[in-house]
Amino acid sequence: MKWYKIPGIENSDKPFIKKVKAGSKSVCLVGYEGKIFALSAKCPHAGGDLSAGWCKDDKLICPLHRYSYDIHTGKGSTGQNDYVDVFPVEVRGDGIYIGVEGFWEKIKKGFS
Ligand code: FES
């Protein structure tokens, strides 16, 4: 797993939603109830920008058609049958980091 430092983000209790880059991935970084979550920024329904959405009841809601995704697991709400990728977040002494698995790491995991 490769870790990417995300500039311009501070660890605080203030809620926020911001689109950032972690390597080649567009990530929606969500500050929610004092924790930071990282989900894919592209909605799987029709490509909406999840970073333009909002959070409610631990779900990130897409602004286009209101599909919603669990900020912990990325799982779509009942009846959607979809999900968004989630990424691990580490708050380190020098900033916020997002972990991204490489292609081969994902393949290896699939066989283990
Ligand atoms: S594009 Fe996100 S709900 Fe339709």
Stretches where pLDDT is under 50 for at least 5 consecutive residues are none
Q: What structural class should be given to the helix and strand makeup?
A: mainly beta
- Topology, number of strands: 10
Write the CATH homologous superfamily: Rieske [2Fe-2S] iron-sulphur domain
| Secondary-structure element order, N to C | EEEEEEEEEEH
The molecules bound to the chains, other than polymers, are: FE2/S2 (inorganic) cluster
Total individual domains: 1
Shape: globular
Mean pLDDT: 94
Largest sheet: 4 strands, antiparallel
Summarize the structure.
By secondary structure, this protein is mainly beta.
Task: Note the main attributes of this structure.
single chain; four-stranded antiparallel β-sheet; Rieske Iron-sulfur Protein; three-stranded antiparallel β-sheet; 112 residues
Topology record:
Blueprint: E1 2-6, E2 16-22, E3 25-32, E4 35-40, E5 54-56, E6 59-61, E7 68-70, E8 86-87, E9 89-92, E10 95-100, H1 103-111
Antiparallel strand pairs: 1-10, 2-3, 3-4, 4-8, 5-6, 6-7, 9-10
The chain binds FE2/S2 (inorganic) cluster.
Structural account:
- This protein has 112 residues and is mostly beta strands.
- The chain has a single domain (2-111), classed as Rieske [2Fe-2S] iron-sulphur domain (Rieske Iron-sulfur Protein, 3-layer Sandwich), CATH 2.102.10.10.
- Helix content is 8%, strand content 42%.
- A hairpin with a 2-residue loop joins strand 9 (89-92) and strand 10 (95-100).
- The protein starts with a strand and ends with a helix.
- Bound molecules: FE2/S2 (inorganic) cluster (FES).
- FE2/S2 (inorganic) cluster (FES) is lined by residues 43, 45-48, 62, 64-65, 67.
